[in-house]
Specification:
single chain, about 290 residues, alpha/beta, Rossmann fold, Alpha-Beta Plaits, 2 domains, about 30% strand, ABC transporter ATP-binding protein
């Protein structure tokens, strides 16, 4: 469905925000993961045809969307990280305005989308008075107006409370059936339960493209749990990567990323997805060193 071939984006002569990214994606939820500044938003902006690559190709169903952006725009839904609303419009008026821009003339679809994102009871309320989570849900509703085949969502849970984040994740997971949903985040828990694939970026480069299960399998044998005396903790953390530390009854309960037994008494632990990604990152750093 979507193919990126050696896509790069340079700003000025020195800054390469996206560096030779090659990626093939079909239906499902793809978590685009990376730290702030990894190049995720730049890459998604190019997929959404808001920016042109400095080099490389982006193909949608075999058509080069850099040369022919309309080939994807009609079938694309996009929710940017900074999604604003018009202060004088109600949620319904906001949806009607975007429907007109997208050529959607079905009032029933507008009502159904407001129901989908649980805003139908707030349809006549000014959108400017909505909470952050409600605005993000309204943003998803407008992105779905044209029944897109590809939904691009940039940092959707930034600033949301835990309940709103859970509701938003569940909604995106449901939308992944029959569509391609690309969800960028630096919060692994946002995609842990819904992503069918993970694309991991670091400093503009794509460093991995795997299923969550494959990443967990690779991390087995590299994550450990241990209980150490507090006076031993300072020495231990100088030579291993401590993922988590908790004081309990005068001891430190640790989760550690290390390729071999990190200390006496440590036990191999089943990694979480976040721990697996951290272990992978540390392994790459050590190989580079």
């Amino acid at each position: 469905m979507l193919e990126l071939r050696a896509v790069s984006k340079k700003f000025g002569k020195e800054v390469r925000a996206v560096d030779e990214v090659t990626l093939s994606l079909g239906q499902g939820v793809v978590g685009l993961i990376g730290h702030n500044g990894a190049g995720k938003s730049t890459l998604m902006g190019m997929i959404a045809t808001l920016a042109r690559p400095s080099s490389g190709q982006i193909l949608f169903d075999g058509v080069d969307i850099v040369r022919k952006p309309d080939a994807i725009r009609r079938r694309l839904g996009y929710l940017p990280q900074d999604f604003g609303v018009y202060p004088n419009l109600s949620a319904l008026e906001f949806m009607q305005y975007f429907a007109a821009l997208k050529g959607v003339r079905d009032p029933v679809r507008i009502r159904r989308l407001l129901e989908l994102v649980n805003l139908h009871d707030q349809a006549h309320r000014p959108a400017a008075s909505f909470s952050g989570g409600m605005r993000r849900r309204l943003g998803i509703a407008q992105a779905l107006l044209n029944d897109p085949d590809i939904l691009v969502v940039d940092e959707p849970t930034a600033g949301l409370d835990p309940e709103e984040r859970l509701r938003f994740r569940n909604l995106l997971g449901e939308l992944g059936y029959g569509k391609l949903v690309i969800l960028s985040t630096h919060i692994v828990s946002d995609v842990e339960s819904i992503a069918t694939e993970l694309a991991i970026m670091r400093s503009g480069r794509l460093v991995a493209h795997e299923t969550p299960d494959a990443i967990l399998r690779l991390a087995r044998g590299q994550v450990w749990s241990a209980s150490v005396a507090e006076h031993d903790y300072a020495v231990l953390r100088e030579r291993v990567h401590v993922l988590q530390a908790q004081r309990q009854d005068g001891r430190m309960l640790l989760r550690i990323a290390h390729p071999e037994l990190p200390c006496l008494g440590a036990r191999e632990a089943e990694p979480t997805l976040e721990e697996a990604l951290m272990a992978q990152r540390y392994a790459v750093q050590e190989e580079a060193a």
